[in-house]
Amino acid sequence: MESLTTLPPDINIHWSAIAPLLTIRNEEEYEEAIERLNDLIDEIGTNEQHPLYHLLDTLGTLKT
């Protein structure tokens, strides 16, 4: 099997922080995800230069 050498060595640390933002298993997690999305919209708006803009864009796509 080919190894995943394109992934950064510290991906596990980062993934454990990001995974909960992308996982929705029930209604409560859905509501929490919408609240996080709304908070990001309030902070970032349409500022495409904001460091979290692409996260906002990704979460918006996943939650719709």
Q: Topology, pairings included?
A:
Elements: H1 11-22, H2 27-44, H3 53-63
Helix pairs in contact: 2-3
How would you characterize the overall build of this protein?
The chain has helices at residues 11-22, 27-44, 53-63. It has 64 residues and is mainly α. The chain has a domain at 25-63. The longest helix is centred in the middle third of the chain and has 18 residues, at 27-44. The mean pLDDT is 87.
Helix tally equals 3
Mean pLDDT: 87
Number of strand elements: 0
Helix/strand/pairing class, anyone?
A: mainly alpha
Distance between the termini: 36 Å
Could you describe the largest sheet, including whether it forms a barrel?
none
| Helix and strand sequence | HHH
Question: Which band does the percent of strand residues land in?
Answer: under 5%
Overall spatial form: flat
Residue share in helices? 55-70%
In terms of per-residue confidence, which ranges show pLDDT below 50 for 5 or more consecutive residues?
none
Compute the CA-based radius of gyration: 14 Å
Features:
64 residues, mainly alpha, 0% strand
Could you provide a short overview of the structure?
This protein has a domain at 25-63. It has three helices and no strands.
